[in-house]
Amino acid sequence: MTRSAPPRLATWLLERFAAGPLRESLIGDILEQYASGRSSTWYVRQALMIVFVALVILVHPRPRRWFRAFALGAVTVVMGLVGGTLALDLSAHNWLVVSIHLGAFGYCFAGVMVLVLTITSLDEPVSLRLVGSARD
Amino acid sequence: MGRRNYLGQLEVMALVAMMRLEDDAYGVAIAKEIELASGRDVPLASLYLTLGRLETNGLIESRRGEPTPERGGRAKTFFKVTAKGIREVRDARRALTTLWNGVPTLAGERR
Questions:
Q1: Which residue segment(s) compose the domain that B28 sits in?
Q2: Residues A136, A23: contact at Cβ < 8 Å?
Q3: Domain that holds residue A34
Q4: Same domain, yes or no: A53 and A83
Q5: Above 0.90 for ipTM, yes or no?
Q6: Residue A38 belongs to some domain of the structure
Q7: Residue A77 domain-assigned?
């Protein structure tokens, strides 16, 4: 019996966050375990663990820079949420409230984008620095 | 006395598992050995991080195997404990045994 494909988002996370000389072996091991009957939950947990480890390793040498980036993203999200709450309190269904709602969602979207961009596109790839020198 | 880092619990377990597995010591097999012995799930990210550290410290060495279809065409990496690694495990076992010898029987445990 052929196993269904693993969860796509988790696979994307694996491909994105695992790096280094042992990257291929690590991803291969996870795929092998999944093919041999491990659950999708297990697969997702492995992917999230890799993301967690990669972020810890990445943030560790330069905590200030990362703190600033994450704080900016978090503040933007909070502003969006506050804006949305205020708009709901006004509760009048006119164009002004609708535009405030849209603005709030825009803020939230921008906040999430800042967080995503922080992780995915700075000057170096997010990498699980798996040191090693497997010989071919 | 010179400064020397102690091996962590996962490091010791990984080294012993590799010694048991001999030529078949790769990520999945090592994780299974540790899970069987400890009864706990080992996240592969943690295991590979440990393996990377052990290799950097010269306690293990690795070689690349052949890619296989069930692994999405990705090769296995096989690990082997070096002479230095064996010495470190032996020292760790000696230290632990010495410490345990001085411990009275734990509650619910038989000698």
A1: 9-101
A2: no
A3: 1-61
A4: no
A5: no
A6: yes
A7: yes
Chain-chain contact of A24 with B52 (C-beta, under 8 angstroms): no
Is the separation of the CB atoms in A15 and B29 below 8 Å? Answer: no
CB contact under 8 A, A49 and B43: yes
SS3 B39: coil
Query: Stretch B36-51: mean pLDDT, rounded?
Result: 91
Q: Which residue of A has its CA nearest to B45?
A: A50
Contacts of B43 (CB under 8 A, 6+ apart): A45, A46, A49
Residues of B in contact with A49 (CB under 8 A): 43-46
Give B-chain residues touching A18 at CB under 8 angstroms. Answer: 45
User: What CATH number is given to the structural domain containing B17?
Assistant: 1.10.10.10
Compute the nearest-CA separation of B93 from chain A (Å): 26
pLDDT at B55: 93
Question: How many structural domains comprise chain B?
Answer: 1
Residue type, A112: V
Chain A residue with CA closest to B76: the answer is A25
pTM of the model: 0.68
